[in-house]
């Protein structure tokens, strides 16, 4: 007799009431100008002598209220400024440093995404976040929010509402298991008649969880609507292996992993888990892991019990943190936890076309998977092992010093992923 292992989604429905590394931070200061303020007591001849010795050219302007001037130079402004600062005729001199706007997209609910940019409101800790705006600015510049060009992210879940206003155009592969079995009065699924064959076009989301995960990973940014995904330039491959109750058998899950790998997904995000170590699931993970980095939820047990697939060696296990950068009470803690990401009270897209706040290591997982996709997009010819090493090296060490069972190497950081 066929035994169906039911794998639950790793979201908590409690409290529900609710590319290319482009023009990064290149020049630090303007190569042609320096800012100098002369000492009040210096005479005009002392000033011009100091300026001549340092090699100053014409004065281009002054700075209101500061009494400093902007002057053209032919040499390295840092060297010129250093030379000027040795003169008694100079109050101070410095290069004309370049500040860059940080890319805050215009999505109306972006301010609620503490996991991406935490300003300390709502009882949070400022900067307990993945530094998303800083990372996006380093990748794309301060005002560009491309919707394409990133590494493909595969998601095994309850499906996704591909027509959601904040996911429009993002889902480039859509499939799911043919049948979850017979639904008796909407109460009981009979898995004995389930068919785990993957069928194209069957990724509609009758639960909501998968749409939420998809939005965290890659919702459209700067479109004047809703939220912003971490890797908003990544296309999504969606495979539905979990039913309307958020459960699914390993046969379908394993098939989805194979399907997503075949679509060319560089990262496969799995916000699901079971305490059962299935040979089938293990084999599917092993086969896919040569081409894709697989990222999965550590689990919501609030204990140290291993959760699969997260606990397989090939899979990055993701714990959940809150707006204080502390481990969520529900988040599984054990030696296999590899990284952490925001997972408490996360706002994202929902299958009713709207938006919803939910919690879970399910929500942490797509944050980490999307950061991994940013890395894969920067290094497209590298291996999953390389991307994984970059992911764990580019974290902020939180909870106990060093790698610890609560948050692994630390909470992921998009700026470090984008620049290191
Ligand atoms: Ca920050
Ligand atoms: Ca949006
Ligand atoms: Ca693991
Ligand atoms: Ca730590």
List the helices and strands and how they pair.
Layout lengths: L6 E3 L19 E10 L5 H11 L1 E8 L4 E6 L3 H9 L4 E8 L34 H9 L12 E5 L13 E9 L2 E3 L3 E3 L4 E6 L8 H10 L17 E5 L6 E2 L1 H13 L4 E4 L1 E2 L5 H10 L4 E5 L17 E7 L15 E6 L3 E4 L5 E4 L2 H18 L5 H10 L1 E2 L14 E2 L1 H6 L1
Helix pairs in contact: 1-2, 4-7, 5-6, 7-8
Bound molecules: calcium ion (4 copies).
One calcium ion binds next to loops.
Explain this structure.
InterPro entries: Fervidolysin-like_N_prodom, Peptidase_S8/S53_dom, Peptidase_S8/S53_dom_sf, Peptidase_S8_His-AS, Peptidase_S8_Ser-AS, Peptidase_S8_subtilisin-like, Peptidase_S8_subtilisin-rel. Keywords: Hydrolase, Protease, Serine protease, Signal. Belongs to the peptidase S8 family. GO terms for molecular function: serine-type endopeptidase activity. The strands form six sheets. The chain has an eight-stranded mixed β-sheet, with helices on both faces. It folds into two domains: 334 residues, 3-Layer(aba) Sandwich (Rossmann fold), CATH 3.40.50.200; 69 residues, Peptidase S8 propeptide/proteinase inhibitor I9 (Alpha-Beta Plaits). The chain is built from nine helices and 21 strands. Helices cover 23% and strands 25% of the residues. Helix 1 crosses helix 2 and helix 5 runs parallel beside helix 6. It is α/β, with parallel strands linked by helices. Strand 18 and strand 19 form a beta hairpin. About 3% of the residues have low confidence. It is elongated.
């Amino acid at each position: 007799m066929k035994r169906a292992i039911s794998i639950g989604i790793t979201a908590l429905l409690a409290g529900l009431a609710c590319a290319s590394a482009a023009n990064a931070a290149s020049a630090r200061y303007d190569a042609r100008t320096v800012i100098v303020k002369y000492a009040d007591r210096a005479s005009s001849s002392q000033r011009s002598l100091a300026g001549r010795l340092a090699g100053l050219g014409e004065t281009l302007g002054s700075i209101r209220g500061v009494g400093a001037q902007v002057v053209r130079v032919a040499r390295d402004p840092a060297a010129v400024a250093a030379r000027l600062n040795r003169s008694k005729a100079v109050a101070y001199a410095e290069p004309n440093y370049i500040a860059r706007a940080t890319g805050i997209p215009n999505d109306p609910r972006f301010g609620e995404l503490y996991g991406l940019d935490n300003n300390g409101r709502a009882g949070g800790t400022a900067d307990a976040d993945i530094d998303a705006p800083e990372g996006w600015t380093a990748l794309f510049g301060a005002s560009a929010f491309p919707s394409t060009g990133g590494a493909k992210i595969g998601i095994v879940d309850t499906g996704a509402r591909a027509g959601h206003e904040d996911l429009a155009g993002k889902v480039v592969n859509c499939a799911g298991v043919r049948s979850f079995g017979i639904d008796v009065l909407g109460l009981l699924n009979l898995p004995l008649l389930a068919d785990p064959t993957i069928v194209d076009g069957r990724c509609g989301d009758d639960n909501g969880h998968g749409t939420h995960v998809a939005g965290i990973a890659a919702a459209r940014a700067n479109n004047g609507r809703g939220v912003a995904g971490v890797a908003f330039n990544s296309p999504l491959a969606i495979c539905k292996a979990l039913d309307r109750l958020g459960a699914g058998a390993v046969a379908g899950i394993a098939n989805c992993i194979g399907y997503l790998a075949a679509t060319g997904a560089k990262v496969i995000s799995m916000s699901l888990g079971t305490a059962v170590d299935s040979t089938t699931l293990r084999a599917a993970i092993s086969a896919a892991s040569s081409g894709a980095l697989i990222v999965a939820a550590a689990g919501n047990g609030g204990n140290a019990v291993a959760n699969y697939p997260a606990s397989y060696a090939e899979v990055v296990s993701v714990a959940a943190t809150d707006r204080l950068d502390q481990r969520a009470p529900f988040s599984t803690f054990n030696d296999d936890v590899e990284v952490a990401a925001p997972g408490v009270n996360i706002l994202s897209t929902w299958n009713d076309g709207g938006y919803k706040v939910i919690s879970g290591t399910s929500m942490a997982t797509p944050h980490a998977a999307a950061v991994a996709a940013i890395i894969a997009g920067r290094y497209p010819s590298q291996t999953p092992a390389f991307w994984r090493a970059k992911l764990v090296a580019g974290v902020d060490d939180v909870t106990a010093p060093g790698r610890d069972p609560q948050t692994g190497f630390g909470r992921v950081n998009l700026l470090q992923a984008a620049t290191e």
